Amino acid sequence: MPHVEQGMRVGLFGGSFNPPHGGHWLVAEIALRRLRLNQLWWMVTPGNPLKDHGKLLPLAKRIALSEAITPDPRVKVTAFEATYGLRYTAETLAVIKQRNAGIHFVWVMGADNLAGFHHWQDWQAIARTFPIAVIDRPGSTLSYLSSKMAKTFAHARVDEDDAGRLALMEAPAWTFIHGPRSLLSSTELRSHWPGKS
């Protein structure tokens, strides 16, 4: 895990990043600014149990590609989940919480993940571990109104204007952050890889 100091605000941005692209960087950039983060951990996962990636690039390649598109030194590209043998986000967050007392973490995710968030392993435990910042993505702006997560945790929704204080709040707490959106997607980029029709 990246090195942190007591009292830091740290965003946790996980994904397979297969491949990483400008849309991912835009989410990270918005999170750094709007959440007033000291760091953002760009967590490259071994794979996503809910996705059929077709061809999953090797972990080392996805790490290298991620490092190449993240120019901000506050972004720490890491793949510690593979080292610890972690498969599910809930497990990952539990380990992070256990090993980093005194750090203010926020789970960061693109709005495109919100609609299916209730299919994630122990999704309610995730929402109760750290505050969550949902960053707008194309075609997903209204998903926060209809998703099961948004309805279940409607009482814990924080106004977007208070996003800068989200890291200091007790979970469950979440907000939806509007902003510039990128049309890039890993699925679309993979469709142009050699061997794809």
UniProtKB/TrEMBL annotation:
Pfam families in the record, alphabetically?
CTP_transf_like
The answer to whether keyword ATP-binding applies is: yes
Q: Where do transmembrane segments lie in this chain? A: none
- UniProt keywords, alphabetically: ATP-binding, NAD, Nucleotide-binding, Nucleotidyltransferase, Pyridine nucleotide biosynthesis, Transferase
Gene Ontology terms for molecular function: ATP binding; nicotinate-nucleotide adenylyltransferase activity
Write the Enzyme Commission number(s) for this entry.
2.7.7.18
What is the top-level taxon of the source organism?
Bacteria
Domain Cytidyltransferase-like, by residue range, is 12-190
Give the reactions, separated by semicolons, that this protein catalyses: nicotinate beta-D-ribonucleotide + ATP + H(+) = deamido-NAD(+) + diphosphate
Kindly report, in one word, the top-level EC class recorded for this enzyme: transferase
Its annotated pathway reads: Cofactor biosynthesis; NAD(+) biosynthesis; deamido-NAD(+) from nicotinate D-ribonucleotide: step 1/1
UniProt-listed InterPro entries: Cyt_trans-like (IPR004821), NadD/NMNAT (IPR005248), Rossmann-like_a/b/a_fold (IPR014729)
Q: What's a BP term from Gene Ontology annotated to this protein?
A: NAD+ biosynthetic process
Quote the function comment for this protein: Catalyzes the reversible adenylation of nicotinate mononucleotide (NaMN) to nicotinic acid adenine dinucleotide (NaAD).
Give the UniProt family note: Belongs to the NadD family.
PANTHER family in the record: NICOTINATE-NUCLEOTIDE ADENYLYLTRANSFERASE-RELATED, PHOSPHOPANTETHEINE ADENYLYLTRANSFERASE
Name recorded for this polypeptide: Probable nicotinate-nucleotide adenylyltransferase
List the source organism: Georhizobium profundi
